[in-house]
Amino acid sequence: ALKARKEQGVKLGRPAGKGEKVRKAMAEKGITAEQLERFKKAGLSDSAIGRLLGVDRRTVKDFKNDETRKG
């Protein structure tokens, strides 16, 4: 059944996340996208940014990778 769906061009698997956890945490902490960019350029690790926002470091890493791909 999956093979037939794939042949029809249906995308299979879990949908990609939208990065909402990081955006929500940024809004709650009052951190802007510019400030987050400065943290990255200052060499702050994903773990440190995650602790600051209250999210896991992998969530921060995924968010940064998605933002890089988008624009």
Describe the structure.
The protein has helices at 2-7, 20-29, 33-41, 46-53, 57-70. By secondary structure, the chain is mostly helical. The mean pLDDT is 88. It is elongated, with a radius of gyration of 16 Å. The longest helix is centred in the last third of the chain and has 14 residues, at 57-70. The chain contains 5 helices and no strands.
Topology (SSEs and partners):
Elements: H1 2-7, H2 20-29, H3 33-41, H4 46-53, H5 57-70
Helix pairs in contact: 4-5
Throw out a few tags for this protein:
71 residues, mainly alpha
Percent of residues in beta strands: under 5%
Biggest sheet: strands, sense, closure? none
Question: What is the CA-atom radius of gyration, in angstroms?
Answer: 16 Å
Shape category: elongated
End-to-end C-alpha gap:
37 Å
Structural class: mainly alpha
Average predicted confidence as pLDDT: 88
How many separate helices?
A: 5
Extended strand count:
0
Poorly predicted runs of 5 or more residues: none
What's the helix-strand series? HHHHH
Q: Level of helix content?
A: 55-70%
